[in-house]
């Protein structure tokens, strides 16, 4: 490889070229049967993905956003409730909460894992909330509304510390929906159960996105919900399909939120390669860790003992993020920032009245994070060039 060839942030073309024949066969089958919506391709994929996640049920939906929304509604979140999540996530998490009729509220993240800090969650529940005597419900003091659910986000492909979160949820009788949109196949070691658990199988439900750039990506928009709860599975199947229990029998009002057959068929093909792609991402992460160990001024990702991350993203932290990103761009190395503006400071949430200083860990890391190229086909030589370029920038900027 020549030393100035561009290193992309993500390569979506190579895996599709490699699988072109299998993917095209799915398309021909769908065309041939005109089975565009529902049918065996959707059911097959749902069964396969449920098995992959160690969950009893999987419900294919139109997007990860719909997955979070339908899961919250089916778990019992109602209009006017408060749902607690983190400000360090993609806005789809809070959009889905709002679309389920609830108001999102935040607790800060852990500075090492970048996921929900259980300590901050405990403080929120104890300090900012009280249990209403009459109803037995947990209320937020300031907002005067019931807090009914928690949405931990398995950010960058690493599970949040679920034992601690689930214990608090049990204490206050709260719903938990995992936002596993970046964490297909990620694992968490539960001390309580003394075994490894899969993302999306640990709570009331797990929400997955198959947006093309995710670890398992459709050739368009798609998502899924996993659950072990039969009643919730039935409810979510109705929600995605206009509230139908059977054709033209509408038990409730629902949505047009189905996974279409073509995407399901394409996802089935790709799912067969996901374990291998995940191993390749993990190997690339080990290689980055090794190369970066010698580089001063860079904080590499932290993987606790209880985590087997799937590295949707490989995110480092540096003091001069803008400078480093510019330097990498000049060396033809693409990077990303996930995410530059914390949700509580987004214009969309101005009306909620949050201010700078409310969630200091999120605010601090948002200024320091850079996502390096990460995808299964990433080569060690490319990684060496990325890290050499990071190192170069460090020595230049420390001289200044
Ligand atoms: C991608 C993503 C979503 C939304 O998924 P879509 O399929 O794009 O609707 C939700 N939450 C997180 C954390 C995501 O990364």
Give the arrangement of secondary structure elements:
Elements: H1 13-18, H2 20-33, H3 40-52, E1 57-61, H4 64-75, E2 82-85, H5 92-99, E3 103-106, H6 118-127, E4 129-131, E5 138-140, E6 145-150, H7 162-172, E7 175-179, E8 187-190, E9 195-198, E10 205-209, E11 223-227, H8 230-240, E12 244-246, E13 249-250, H9 261-292, E14 307-308, E15 314-317, H10 321-330, H11 360-366, E16 369-372, H12 380-399
Parallel strand pairs: 2-3, 2-6, 6-7, 7-10
Antiparallel strand pairs: 1-11, 4-5, 5-6, 8-9, 8-14, 10-11, 12-13, 15-16
Helix pairs in contact: 2-9, 3-9, 4-5, 4-8, 6-7, 9-12, 10-12
Molecular structure report:
With 400 residues, the chain is α/β, with parallel strands linked by helices. The protein folds into 2 domains: 14-269, Aspartate Aminotransferase, domain 2; 274-398, Aspartate Aminotransferase, domain 1 (Alpha-Beta Complex), CATH 3.90.1150.10. 38% of the residues lie in helices and 16% in strands. It is built from 12 helices and 16 strands. The protein has helices at residues 13-18, 20-33, 40-52, 64-75, 92-99, 118-127, 162-172, 230-240, 261-292, 321-330, 360-366, 380-399, and strands spanning 57-61, 82-85, 103-106, 129-131, 138-140, 145-150, 175-179, 187-190, 195-198, 205-209, 223-227, 244-246, 249-250, 307-308, 314-317, 369-372. Strands 1, 2, 3, 4, 5, 6, 7, 10 and 11 form a 9-stranded mixed beta sheet that branches. Strands 9-8-14 form a 3-stranded antiparallel beta sheet, with no helix packed on it. A two-stranded antiparallel sheet has the order 12-13. The longest helix has 32 residues, at 261-292. The protein is globular. The structure holds pyridoxal-5'-phosphate. The site of pyridoxal-5'-phosphate has 14 residues, from helix 4 and helix 5.
């Amino acid at each position: 490889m020549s030393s100035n060839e561009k290193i992309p942030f993500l390569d979506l073309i190579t895996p599709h070229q490699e699988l072109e024949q299998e993917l095209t066969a799915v398309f021909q089958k769908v065309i041939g049967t005109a089975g565009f919506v529902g049918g065996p391709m959707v059911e097959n994929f749902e069964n396969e993905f449920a098995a992959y996640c160690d969950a009893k049920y999987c419900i294919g939906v139109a997007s990860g956003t719909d997955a979070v929304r339908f899961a919250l509604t089916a778990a019992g979140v109602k209009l006017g409730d408060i749902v607690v999540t983190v400000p360090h996530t993609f806005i789809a998490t809070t959009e889905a909460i709002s679309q389920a009729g609830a108001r999102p509220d935040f607790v800060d993240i852990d500075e090492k894992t970048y996921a929900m800090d259980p300590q901050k969650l405990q403080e929120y529940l104890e300090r900012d909330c009280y249990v209403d005597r009459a109803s037995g419900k947990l209320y937020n003091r300031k907002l005067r509304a019931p807090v009914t659910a928690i949405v931990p986000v398995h950010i960058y492909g690493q599970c949040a510390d679920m034992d601690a979160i689930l214990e608090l949820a049990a204490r206050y009788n709260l719903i938990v929906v995992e936002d596993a949109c970046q964490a297909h196949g990620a694992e968490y070691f539960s001390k309580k159960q003394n075994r490894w658990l899969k993302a999306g199988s640990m709570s009331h439900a797990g929400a997955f996105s198959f947006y093309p750039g995710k670890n398992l990506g459709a050739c368009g928009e798609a998502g899924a919900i996993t659950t072990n709860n039969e009643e919730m599975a039935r409810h979510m199947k109705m929600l995605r399909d206009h509230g139908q229990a059977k054709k033209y029998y509408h038990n409730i009002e629902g949505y047009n939120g189905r996974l279409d057959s073509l995407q399901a068929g394409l996802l089935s093909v790709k799912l067969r390669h996901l374990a291998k792609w995940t191993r390749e991402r993990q190997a690339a992460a080990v290689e980055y860790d090794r190369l970066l160990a010698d580089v001063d001024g860079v904080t590499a990702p932290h993987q606790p003992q209880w985590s087997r991350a799937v590295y949707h993203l490989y995110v480092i932290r540096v003091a001069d993020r803008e400078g480093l990103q510019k330097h990498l761009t000049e060396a033809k190395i693409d990077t990303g920032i996930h995410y530059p503006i914390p949700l509580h400071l987004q214009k969309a949430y101005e009306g909620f009245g949050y201010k700078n200083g409310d969630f200091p860990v999120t605010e601090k890391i948002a200024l320091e994070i850079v996502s390096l190229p990460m995808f299964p086909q990433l080569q060690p030589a490319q990684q060496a060039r990325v890290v050499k370029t990071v190192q170069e920038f460090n020595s230049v900027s420390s001289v200044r």
